[in-house]
C-alpha cells in the first residue's frame, strides 16, 4: 500500500517496543517512500517486568538492553532519526505538565512534521501512553489551526471502540510485514511471550492474528472533540 | 541473577548493615493487569534512591523469601524474593519473579546512588 505523501512524520511514544506493535509497518512504509521519519522515545522502559525466563537481565541492566533493542528495531524499520529523551518509565504523568508540552513543541519545531503519530489520551491503557498523547495534543492545540499537523492516534483500551468507533485510518502493511516482524523481534526481551503466542495463533489460521500483522489502525485526532 | 541461597544472601545483607545506603524498592503487577482482567485491582509502589541505614537485615521463610531491614525508627520489608545478585558495581540486587518470569518485587541496596 502506498501512503499519502507527507513532509515529515514525527512518532512519539514513551517505551521502546511501543512502536513495534502498532506502527512499525507504517514507519517502514513511509521510509520506503522516502518520507523522513523521526521517532522520539521518551524512556527506556526501565520498569519493564519482563527480564527473561530464567531472568537474563536485572532492574539495573534492563535499560541498556532495551536501548540496544530500540537501535535494532530502528534498523529493522530503516529508521535513522531515533531520539531518546531520557525520561523514566512510569513517571511521565508526574513530570511538570508545561515541561512535557515544551518537549513536544521542541520536537515539532525541530522536525516540522505534517503528520504526528502518538497515543490517544485516555484510551491508551498505560498511564505513560496517556500522558504522552496528552502532552502532544496540548502542544499541537496551541498551534494556529492552519499550521497544525495531522495527528494519527493509537487507542486500544477496552472501551475505545465503544466510545471512539472504528479507527478511520487503516494501513495495509503486508508489503513490509517482514520489517514489522523485524521490529517485533528486535524487542525480544519484551515480545518473546507475545511472539510465541502469535506464532501459535497464526499456525491455527486465526484471522485476528493475521489481521494484526498486516494492518495498522489509527484515529485521526479531532480537535473539536475535547479530551479535557 | 541466581536463585536465592539463604546463607550467602544473609552474609551480603550483613555486609551492608550500619552503612548509609541507597535503596530501590518496588512492587508491581504490571500496568496492563487491569486491562487484561478487569477484576484485578492494580496496586504497586516504588521508591528509588532513598538513603537509609539499617541496623539489622534478615532473610526469612522458605522460597519465595521475605526480607526485613530494621531501621532505627522503622522498617523496610519485601515479600516474594526469589533471585539475587551482587552486581559488578557491588550493589545487592534482589528480586521476585513470578511463575512466568515476570518481575513482581525488587529490593536493591547500594552504597552509591542508582541511575536516574
Attribute tags:
heterodimer; A: alpha/beta; Rossmann fold; B: 116 residues; mainly beta; Protein Yojf, Chain: A; three-stranded antiparallel β-sheet; 2 helices; 13% helix; 47% strand
Strand residue percentage of chain A: 15-25%
- Which fold name is given in CATH as the topology of chain B? Protein Yojf, Chain: A
Number of domains of chain B: 1
Instruction: Provide the succession of SSEs of chain B.
Output: EHEHEEEEEEE
Structural class of chain B: mainly beta
Helix content of chain A: 40-55%
Largest sheet of chain A: 7 strands, mixed
- Top-tier CATH class of chain A: Alpha Beta
Helix content range of chain B: 10-25%
- Number of distinct beta strands of chain A: 7
Number of structural domains of chain A: 1
Tell me the radius of gyration of chain A: 17 Å
CATH architecture of chain A: 3-Layer(aba) Sandwich
What does this structure look like?
The complex is a heterodimer of chains A (228) and B (116). With 228 residues, chain A is an alpha/beta fold. Chain A has a single domain, classed as LmbE-like (Rossmann fold). In chain A, 43% of the residues lie in helices and 17% in strands. Chain A contains 9 helices and 7 strands, in the order βααβαβαβαβαβαααβ. Chain A has a 7-stranded mixed sheet, sandwiched between helices. In chain A, helix 5 links the parallel strand 4 and strand 5. In chain A, helix 3 packs antiparallel against helix 7. Chain B has 116 residues and is mainly beta. Chain B has one domain: Protein Yojf, Chain: A (Distorted Sandwich), CATH 2.70.180. Helices cover 13% and strands 47% of the residues of chain B. In chain B, strands 1-7-8-9-2-3 form a 6-stranded antiparallel sheet, covered by helices on one side. In chain B, strands 4-5-6 form a 3-stranded antiparallel sheet, covered by helices on one side. Chain B is globular and about 45 Å long. The mean pLDDT of chain B is 95.
